């Protein structure tokens, strides 16, 4: 995907809306205009390929082999992280 530049093509909002599916599948960002004024920049995101998905699944499987966790352990870690993120004491522990 190309990075947006001053050379980004412009498109009217009605044309953009009518051809949205095509712009989603494109690689090039476009500037969306209304009455000739820029109102937004649309940047299509790259979809992961089947190969990318397979690599992520393999990495996840390898991680689970290396660090097997029960569902309860995962839930406890998520709760701890959430508490720390919010500046609260960890669940089931008294504050210091």
Helix content: 40-55%
Structural class determined from secondary elements = alpha+beta
Total number of distinct structural domains:
2
Largest sheet: 3 strands, mixed
Number of helices: 4
What would the average pLDDT be, to the nearest integer? Answer: 86
Low-confidence stretches: 1-5
What distance separates the N and C termini? 50 Å
Strand order of the largest sheet: 1-2-3
How many E-type strands? 3
Query: What series of H and E elements makes up the topology?
Result: EHHEEHH
Envelope shape? elongated
What is the oligomeric state here?
Answer: single chain
Strand residue percentage: 5-15%
The whole-angstrom Rg is 23 Å
Describe the structure.
46% of the residues lie in helices and 15% in strands. It has two domains: 10-42, no CATH class; 50-85. The protein has helices spanning 13-18, 20-25, 50-66, 71-85; strands at residues 10-12, 30-34, 37-42. The model is unreliable at 1-5 (pLDDT under 50). By secondary structure, it is α+β, with helices and mostly antiparallel strands. A hairpin with a 2-residue loop joins strand 2 (30-34) and strand 3 (37-42). It has a three-stranded mixed sheet with strand order 1-2-3.
